[in-house]
């Protein structure tokens, strides 16, 4: 089901009136725009995104204005982004023109680059909203404001790690006329993206769980082999720490822990606890306070408990957690409220 906020359609159009000659008079000079946004790059660490944008337009002008219309060129101003224009032109569609009006099709193609603050608390189950802020559509020459009666945004992701959803569209300068359709020339557009977690589940969570289970196996060894056991535990801790920092390199430096951080820190804490347990059991065995068979049974139970615990956590992360992502309104609320209160300090 389409998100109702992805389109500006105040006149509740159920058909393409630009193709219908009987609607010429009401929709003269009114523009239909379908904007296709192809996301090419997202860099959460540096807060940069890049996209290729193509706007397909339809507009009818009176036949008497054909000469003046041929000199028009569509343009858009996006103050928050750097724009590299590739193509901007309009051309006549003679098949859909009538005796009273001419249907013109327009193409506006450009590449944009912008900045955005990415919140990654839920990494790798995070959702992101890229706020393009103001889009101001105008006709060049003369910078005449477009009267857009139907504006639709379609978002496509060219990135294997991200899924794109319908954008949020809000008209900023609506114009209502009693004898014609409502229109606008300025819009606020927010792109919605969701990270695909499968890669990280396989290459981080599954791998680190394998390392953890392998590092826990010394719990089944003789309690007196304290040196070998501590060496295996220490090797597991160092491996998990290196994994943690390799993940951190892909993300912005933030003052909070992500879901992946908590997962890896929990595994490191588990190995540290087993190191303490190994030392305590070794001391108890040396002093004959507890029988060796009892210690071995306890350690076997600890091994089974930790393996079962982390397999359950892995199952939750792999198959359940993705169904509990933040709602889009929560993502937007967090992004809008995450504004620094201090400036220049």
UniProtKB/TrEMBL annotation:
Segments passing through the bilayer: 199-218, 301-320
InterPro entries with a match to the protein in the record: Neur_chan_lig-bd_sf, Neuro-gated_channel_TM_sf, Neuro_actylchol_rec
Coiled coil: none
GO terms assigned for molecular function: extracellular ligand-gated monoatomic ion channel activity
Listed GO CC annotations: membrane
Principal localisation: membrane
Cell location: Membrane
Top-level division of the source organism's lineage: Eukaryota
Membrane topology: Multi-pass membrane protein
Keywords: Membrane, Transmembrane, Transmembrane helix
Entry protein name: Neurotransmitter-gated ion-channel ligand-binding domain-containing protein
Source organism per UniProt: Alexandrium monilatum
